[in-house]
Amino acid sequence: MSEKKLFRFPTAFSILFIILIIAVALTWIIPAGSYSKLIYNAANNHFVVKTYQQPDKILPATKESLDSLNIKIDLNNFTEGTIRKPIAVPGSYQRVEQNPKNVQDIAISMVEGTIEAADVMVFIFVLGGMIGVINRTGSFNAGLTALAKRTKGNEFFIVFSVCVLMAIGGTTCGIEEEAVAFYPILVPVFLALGYDAIVCVGAIFLASSMGTAFSTVNPFSVVIASNAAGIQFTEGIMFRTIGLILGSACVICYMYWYCNKIKADASFSYTYEIREEFYNRYMKNYDPNTELEFNVRRKIILAIFCIAFPIMIWGVMAGGWWFPEMAASFLTLTILIMFISKLKEQEIIDAFTHGASELVGVSLIIGLARGVNLVLDEGMISDTILAYMSDIVAGMPITAFILAQLGIFIILGLFVPSSSGLAVLSMPIMAPLADAVGIPRHMVVSAYNWGQYAMLFLAPTGLVLVTLQMLHIPFDKWVKFVMPMIGALLLIGATLLIIQVQIYT
């Protein structure tokens, strides 16, 4: 009698392919529609209003032009480059000719999405190559052995420190795609400390996402959303800070509970059945019984590697960097490491290409996710969903209104996974609805932030599948782990919104 085959949850590739088919089907079901979009042309210092299948309308870049469109956004936000993406014009939604996608569009969108994500993919390849070179020098192996000795008995302090730093990174600069760079260095650390794959994702992705959900000064979400809502980003910051403290505390306590559980009984791990595969993948160069000398050269190599991350964060926050610049900075440091390593040329090339090749799957996931977004955009159904949602909440009682906003942004987060993209699309439409019920607009900004990120913990079109593919963690295991934290996020968010309703009415 043959053994009964165990069910294996579909891989990230299969999940995204299924989502892509569903997206194509939705373009046949959901009516197509479009808002007019306002774009600032910096070269000619004027506004351009783009309306579907109509000639562009040119307006002077003045406050009067914004008022005529009922857009309550400071003109400086456009002229100074704070808002660069198209802004939805309130009251301009119109049904348009249906633009359904077909079977052939599935493959086309996969290719076009991959091309569109080329900058991110190059960054990931360079990162993988850098890791490959450092692994060949033995620096990681020697460093992990030294770290394991020094932290014996205080292993959770490393997890705690990473959680705090990632939450701070999330709330200040919205560290999301950039967090991918932290896995290759931190995953072996957590494994050497006796933890599992889920702890790696929890300390990096979960903590940074909770910080981003309760953004305080993040320019890519709460700042741009506040600007698009016509208010200062400092409005409501006290409540967002309270949420950040509570949310981060929940993550740390949850991680402490889980880490203690798997330390006491390794079989408690949600990824226990794949532990050997995971360990072999990330610790194949680490042998705790073979102690490599942690000499000056290896310390310098690891120091250069660690320096790459604060440089990257500085570049994003202060230097206007994006993925090409980040990739270039990592490549520069990789070349420096190559010279220090004293490896032979062929060894360096082999190590770099092997390291990059191990992240090909991760890069393709990013391209497939972009393909889903392309189908939704070209099918012109995202604006229809937003218009329908705004009609639902209009005229609701105050408490029901703000909680409904929270729920709406959970749904919109699935269709528009970009935080800045959703901000400029939705805020000009949703924020004025707060005026009608007599509450401050910053409450809608908070609902946007908390609702969207509750969805992005799970949304296949976001970064979660990229993370899980990188660590080869089944999606169902992640769902089991993260659901309590999604519940905590929504409970904290809903409570803070209700408290604000009581204060402001």
Protein model, in words:
The chain crosses the membrane at residues 12-30, 117-135, 156-175, 181-206, 213-231, 237-259, 300-316, 322-340, 352-372, 392-415, 422-444, 450-469, 481-503. Its main location: membrane. It is found in: Cell membrane. Helix 5 packs across helix 15, helix 10 (219-229) packs antiparallel against helix 20 (442-456) and helix 11 runs antiparallel to helix 22 (475-504). Strands 4-3-2-5 form a four-stranded antiparallel beta sheet. Strands 1-6 form a two-stranded antiparallel ribbon. It is mainly α. The protein is 68% helix and 4% strand. It has helices at 12-29, 63-68, 76-79, 103-116, 118-137, 139-150, 155-173, 183-192, 197-213, 219-229, 237-264, 275-282, 296-318, 323-341, 345-357, 360-378, 382-393, 398-415, 419-437, 442-456, 464-471, 475-504; strands at residues 33-34, 37-41, 46-50, 57-60, 87-88, 94-95. The longest helix is centred in the C-terminal third of the chain and has 30 residues, at 475-504. Mean pLDDT is 87; it is low at 1-5. A hairpin with a 6-residue loop joins strand 3 (46-50) and strand 4.
Structural class: mainly alpha
Number of helices, counting only DSSP H or I runs of 4 residues or more:
22
Order of helices and strands, N to C? HEEEEHHEEHHHHHHHHHHHHHHHHHHH
Q: Runs with pLDDT <50, length 5+?
A: 1-5
Q: What sort of overall outline do the alpha carbons produce when their principal axes are compared?
A: globular
Largest beta sheet: what is the strand line-up?
4-3-2-5
CA radius of gyration: 24 Å
Biggest sheet character: 4 strands, antiparallel
Alpha-carbon distance between the termini? 70 Å
Mean pLDDT: 87
* E-strand count: 6
Q: Portion of residues in helices?
A: 55-70%
Sheet-strand content, in percent, reads under 5%
